[in-house]
Write a structure and sequence with these properties.
Blueprint: E1 12-15, H1 17-26, H2 30-38, H3 47-59, E2 63-70, E3 73-79, E4 85-89
Parallel strand pairs: 1-4
Antiparallel strand pairs: 2-3, 3-4
């Protein structure tokens, strides 16, 4: 459930070349999606994956969000279990 306060640290943020190109092509800024992710808005993740993210917040597992930034363009945001790194990437780059 999205909150006003950040729910976890992002750590270092990195972006893959494909995701950077997708953001440039769509004129969308990645910070918006990082903030959604950090506040518990998991985007278009299925309900069972959203539930897994909620559990991961307390158990220290990896967190993942999925956002459509344009028609036929999806970005994933993944925060590692130790919260040291958050990566923005295309599904094809996983």
């Amino acid at each position: 459930m999205p909150t006003i306060q950040p729910r976890f640290p992002l750590g270092a943020t990195v972006i893959t070349p494909g995701a950077a190109a997708a953001f440039a092509d769509t004129n969308v800024h990645p910070a918006h999606y990082l903030q959604r992710h950090r506040h518990g808005d998991w985007g278009e993740m299925p309900p069972e994956d959203q539930a897994s993210n909620e559990e991961a917040l307390t158990e220290g597992y990896r967190l993942m969000s999925s956002y459509s930034i344009a028609p036929h363009t999806t970005i994933w945001v993944i925060t590692e279990a130790d919260r040291s790194v958050t990566t923005l990437l295309l599904p094809s780059e996983y």
